[in-house]
Specification:
Layout (H helix, E strand, L loop, with lengths): L12 H4 L4 H23 L2 H8 L3 H8 L2 H22 L7 H18 L1 H13 L2 H4 L2 H24 L8 H17 L1 H8 L6 H19 L2
Length: about 220
């Protein structure tokens, strides 16, 4: 019997041609992101991914080779999504303070709108981040953002609105942490403090706090 990580048999030509290959890959990736976000790599099933995508199970192996490889590509896709939208912010065209406020707000809003991103990152961290470490594409994605953030901090320092001793990687991690922890631990935090921290009112208040807190930390 074939395992979840290896193809059961070659994909018949008639199965390959049933759908447009690019559309099939997009459908499989969308299904994989949803399945991995819900169940993690260990719990996700190729059968269920194929069912969600409305394709033959063999097409998963035809396009991606294995469940592990599909998981890596799914991770790359969710990271690519946030990086593309960060680039679209055009921070280099804005005054430093406005640019930083926009980035902080965007980072928070993205997690509100994409809970699957939080879930997938939690799962990858539980595994020790082997897929992120092994993906050259993921490593390359970080460089443009960190460079742009460094330029923004430098411009802000020259204008006297930011401190001049801030490392862009440290700043990025701090910005991400202020929002990420709130969503990754929302249920336990709600239970501990007796507040419904997932309510629209609580999320809106948290967003204002995160922006004000991060900007205050950057001021001279």
């Amino acid at each position: 019997m074939a395992s979840e990580s290896s193809p059961p048999s070659p994909v018949p030509e008639r199965v390959r041609g049933q759908r447009d290959p690019e559309a099939t890959q997009r459908a499989l990736l969308a299904a994989a992101v949803a399945e991995f976000a819900e169940k993690g790599l260990a719990g996700a099933r190729v059968d269920e991914i194929a069912r969600r995508a409305s394709v033959n199970k063999q097409l998963v192996y035809h396009h991606f080779g294995s469940k592990e490889e599909l998981y890596r590509v799914a991770l790359e896709q969710v990271y690519a999504g946030i990086r593309a939208q960060e680039q679209a912010l055009q921070l280099g065209d804005l005054p430093p303070l406005m640019a930083m406020e926009r980035l902080i707000g965007f980072s928070f809003d993205y997690l509100v709108e994409h809970p699957e991103f939080v879930a997938l990152l939690n799962d990858e961290n539980r595994q020790g981040a082997p897929h992120v470490r092994g993906s050259g594409r993921l490593q390359e994605m970080q460089s443009p953002l960190i460079a742009l953030l460094g330029q923004t901090l430098e411009r802000g320092g020259q204008d006297g609105v930011f401190r001049t001793d801030m490392d862009p990687v440290d700043v990025y991690i701090s910005i991400a942490a202020l929002s990420y922890f709130y969503f990754s631990n929302n249920r336990t935090l709600s239970a501990i403090f007796g507040r419904e921290l997932s309510s629209a009112r609580a999320v809106s208040a948290r967003r204002r706090h995160v922006i004000a807190f991060a900007l205050a930390a950057l001021r001279p």
